[in-house]
Amino acid sequence: MRGLIGLAFGAVLLAVPLAAAIPDLPTMLSYPFIDGLTAARDSDRIAWTGNTKGIRTVWTASGPGFAPRAVRVATDDDGQELTGLTLAPDGKRLVWVRGGDHDANWEENGRQPNAAGATDQPKLTLWTALAAGGPAVAIGEGDAPALANDGRLAFVKNGELWVGTAAKDGSHRVYDEGKVRDLVWSPDGSRLASVSGRGDHSFVGVYSVAVKTVTWIAPSTGIDGDLVWSPDGTRVAFTRQWNNGGAAEPLRIDVPRPWAIVVADMASGGGRVVWSSPKTLVGSYPDVPGGASLGWAAGNTLVFRAEFDGWPHLYALPATGGEPRLLTPGKFMVEDVRLGHDGTSVFYTANANANANASANASDVADDDRRHVFSVPVDRGPAFGIETPSETRYGGLQFRPTPLTDGFVAFVSVTATQPAAVAVSSAVGSGFTKLIDHGADAYPAAALVVPQRVTFAAADGTLVHGQLFTTGGAAKKPAVIFVHGGPPRQMLLGWSYMEYYSNAYAVNQALAARGFVVLSVNYRLGIGYGRAFQHPDKGGPAGASEYQDVVAGAKYLESLPGVDPARLGIWGGSYGGYLTGLALARNSDIFKAGVDLHGVHDWSRLLAEEIAPAKRYEQGEWTDALHTAFTSSPAADVATWRSPVLLIQGDDDRNVRFNQTIDLARRLDAAGVAYEELVLPNEIHGFLRHTSWLKADAATIDFLTRKLMP
Q1: How far apart (Å, rounded) are the C-alpha atoms in residues 606 and 675?
Q2: Do 344 and 438 share a structural domain?
Q3: Is the pLDDT of residue 108 over 90?
Q4: What are the E-state strand segments in 600-654?
Q5: Which SS3 state, helix, strand or coil, does residue 66 take?
Q6: Which of 117, 107, 189, 119 has the alpha carbon at shortest distance from 153?
Q7: Residue 18 lies in a domain
């Protein structure tokens, strides 16, 4: 029982009854998004990328006035990412990457995405420009650029290392048996460290510019990464994890994953383990975005992130070895770690109270669904929050701390209603300057609601967090649950630091403005509430224990006097698409309609296609795991699926294979379940074109309105 979503989305938008004060969807999606904020090592210049309605721009600014200047502006919604933005140490030159899919789980044999349907095959290309002015110039194909202080450029091309200058045809290949990543120049620019991935192990190699040779640093059977140079360039530190070389291993997640930190002397090339983690679950390599975030600070001190107390926190360790010292105690998450310019302090974001500057050790429960910028001295504590203006300090969020010279720090600032702007502040708490709003001041912020922080208990007693979007009123309204993807994500009380979820935030706001009550559920498996919450028993393909959090969210909505329980829907993308399918399959009695964007619908198929070819497991355990994975999937309960669903996916999805949606559609056909489709040719998982998001979001709002509004 298939329906087709047409392409006349202007008509779809007009079909939704809107009050005069409610902006149309294109206006709601006109928010600016800022990413890639970076700073020069030896100057006060910063740079970042902006994306407004699909027009991607490279920006730069420098002190003391920090007047922004557009370096390179796309001419249309071309679907080509701008990533890898890097500044030369002196701040005089920028290099960035155009094209590609840098969130993909797998490669497509070097074939780059072509979301706009160009007749000439897109390439992954490097671009450069002088920061002070002049044209942007394409260098050639490449990715992951790293600029040295003498202007030398290193980059990756087809998994191989290339070294040269920021000029066309000025580079040469450095042959390697593995796939090269993580390029880091020594402080003096004479050597380049990188990681050579060899499948079941990896090495740290150091390339000498003068003699054009690679020295392998303390090679072992481990998986090396997170490499950093000492400030004087005489040593390299990196993390080491271990694989089993392809032997059968357990599928269970409750197995410790120990790791170590290695320090190597460049004069000898020899290294030694200066610290090893405890062989416990909380001692495992941190399974959070950014991993260990290893850095080499002043005073011969290493800083890293670990979860020894059940929370991702910063620790200091003598580079000669010893016991780690906790820098950021408290029940909150440390994220997005950056060393200060002189190495004496560390900047980071955390979901902790930013207002109690003298005592940031204790989390404020009102801020556990936000992010604020903090700094902590490496040699002591406590941490302190970075001052921001009163209107953002108490209701706002700050992301991407980027230390500058002269004691300043840049960051991205948002509120619940105001989208992203770049800001700079004194690291000691004064001198705030707003750099550029990218259209944020013109955005219809007054039409947005301020989401409320809510909590509710799941069936097993687990406390679950959510953000409630509602315009209030006495009449009973339809309601919608939003479930995020990942799943190591956290939805916040404001605009997100991820582009995918900035779009979701705008859609939730648009639904609220159109008369829905929206609850965004931060289900278990997500970040922000501790390691135990992120690693529950029997989650995902092992039993879908997180689904009870979604049901608990529905029960919470049903308890609200302003919600009509008979008109409750659900929507989400990726892992949220999986949970949307699970909700409709298991509980069509609760969820009357849903929108499923690129979700996983049969875990057993995904395990067989993605995991089994790469690893070996004991036969009995593998058979049991496949059975459990299937019964944890929407496909297993299609027989009880009654509610209509809209399926949305791009057919060049490189995170969730398109066959997951094809398979579900055929199962729904056989079961006689009503569904509609929106297939976006050439699009990837996180849509590259603003036009694609507009189509998907308009279809989402239209579908939920038709099914749940009277």
Answers
A1: 23
A2: yes
A3: no
A4: 645-650
A5: coil
A6: 189
A7: no
Q: What's the whole-number mean pLDDT along residues 634-646?
A: 98
- Distance, in Å, from the CA atom of 543 to the CA atom of 555, rounded to the nearest integer, reads 21
> Model-level pTM?
0.94
Domain boundary among the residues 305, 326, 347 is at 326
Structural domain containing residue 152: 32-107+124-175
How does pLDDT run across 595-634, given as a tens digit for each residue?
999 999 999 998 888 766 555 566 667 788 889 999 999 9
3-state secondary structure of 153: strand
- Separation between Cα atoms, residue 615 and residue 245, nearest integer Å: 9
Given a contact cutoff of 8 angstroms between Cβ atoms, the answer to whether 413 and 391 are in contact is no
C-alpha 531/C-alpha 542 separation (Å) is 18
What average pLDDT is seen over the chain? 89
pLDDT of residue 615: 56
> Does 140 share its domain with 223?
no
> What is the number of structural domains in the chain?
4
Residues near 710 by beta carbon (within 8 Å), at least 6 away in sequence:
none
- Together in a domain, 412 and 523: no
Q: Per residue in 190-235, pLDDT tens? A: 999 999 999 889 999 999 999 999 999 999 999 999 999 999 999 9
478 shares a domain with 414 = no
Secondary structure class of 695 (helix, strand, coil): helix
16 domain-assigned: no
What's the CA gap between 150 and 475, in Å, rounded? Answer: 67
> Any idea what the CATH number is for the domain that residue 92 is in?
2.130.10.120
> Measured between alpha carbons, how far is residue 331 from residues 15, 334, 351, 365, 447 in Å?
47, 10, 9, 10, 34
User: So what's the pLDDT on residue 106?
Assistant: 85
Q: Which of 696, 581, 591 is nearest to 650 (CA)?
A: 696
Task: List phi, psi (to 5°) of 569.
Answer: -125, -175
Q: How far apart are CA 355 and CA 375, in angstroms?
A: 13
Same domain for 279 and 319, yes or no, is yes
- Distance (Å, whole) CA 549 – CA 559: 15
Whether residue 406 sits in one domain with residue 351:
yes
- Residue 580, C-beta contacts closer than 8 angstroms, at least 6 positions apart: 483, 570, 571, 572, 594, 595, 596, 599, 645
518 in the same domain as 385: no
Question: Per the structure block, which two tokens stand in for 632?
Answer: 């944890």
CA torsion, ordered 236, 241, 247, 252, to nearest 10 deg? -170
| Boundary of a domain, candidates 411, 444, 477 | 444
Q: Which two tokens stand for residue 539?
A: 């989650």
Cα–Cα dist 251/22, whole Å: 50
Q: How far apart are CA 37 and CA 59, in angstroms?
A: 9
Q: Once rounded to an integer, what is the mean pLDDT over residues 248-271?
A: 82
Tokens (6 digits) for 531: 């390691």
b/e map of 429-446 (b: 16 or more CB within 10 Å)?
Answer: eeebbebbbbbbeebbee
Same domain, 413 and 497: no
For residue 269 the two structure tokens come to 């090339």
13 within a domain of the structure (yes/no): no
| Residue 316: Cβ within 10 Å count | 22
pLDDT in tens, 452-497: 999 999 999 999 999 999 998 878 999 999 999 999 999 999 999 9
Query: What is the model's pLDDT at position 480?
Result: 98
